[in-house]
Design brief:
The protein is of the alpha+beta class. Helix content is 25%, strand content 40%. It has four helices and six strands. It has helices at 12-26, 31-35, 53-67, 151-154; strands spanning 38-46, 49-52, 69-81, 84-94, 100-111, 117-129. The chain has a six-stranded mixed beta sheet with strand order 2-1-6-5-4-3. A hairpin with a 5-residue loop joins strand 4 (84-94) and strand 5. It is globular. The chain starts with 11 loop residues before the first helix and ends with a helix.
């Protein structure tokens, strides 16, 4: 399965692999590459913003990572079934104001038969944190190291 896309229907291991692949992809901070994981007509609700299609996804992510500097993300599978996965996540970033933030959220994903996400609903809350409170210290951009604790292990 290493070279095969993870496609629905999802079992537990498939859902966990899909979530980790998404985490690793978002941690590249490469909008064009991230957008390819979504169907051409993918629809998003991200906070209060609605996005449709890959071009809008790329534009959204470019703006996001211009605002959210030193971005790092951890995702965890929360639930799964057939062609849907529920995810919880927390990211850390430095804002343009120089302050650090941790953003907590939940996502609901729906996939097409090719394993591309066609529907993404994200609810997100931001918390300003002290730089000393940061928990994500791996080299970025890039994936979280395999031995780095996940959300549950971090108590998040």
């Amino acid at each position: 399965m290493p070279n095969q896309p993870v496609v629905p229907p999802f079992g537990r291991d498939d859902a966990i692999a899909k979530v980790r692949a998404a985490e690793d992809l978002w941690n590249t901070r490469d909008p064009e590459r991230v957008a390819l994981a979504y169907s051409p007509d993918s629809r998003w609700r991200n906070r209060t913003t609605w996005v449709k299609g890959r071009d809008e996804i790329v534009a959204f992510l470019v703006q996001k990572w211009e605002r959210e500097l030193d971005y790092r993300l951890i995702k965890e599978m929360w639930g799964y079934g057939d062609n849907r996965i529920a995810v919880r996540f927390a990211s850390e970033c430095r804002g343009k104001d120089g302050l650090w933030y941790r953003c907590y959220g939940n996502e609901n994903w729906q996939f097409d038969a090719d394993g591309r996400c066609q529907l993404r609903h994200a609810s997100i809350n931001d918390l300003q944190i002290a730089e000393s409170a940061r928990l994500y210290h791996w080299d970025a951009p890039g994936p979280r190291p395999q031995d780095h604790p996940g959300l549950t292990d971090l108590g998040l």
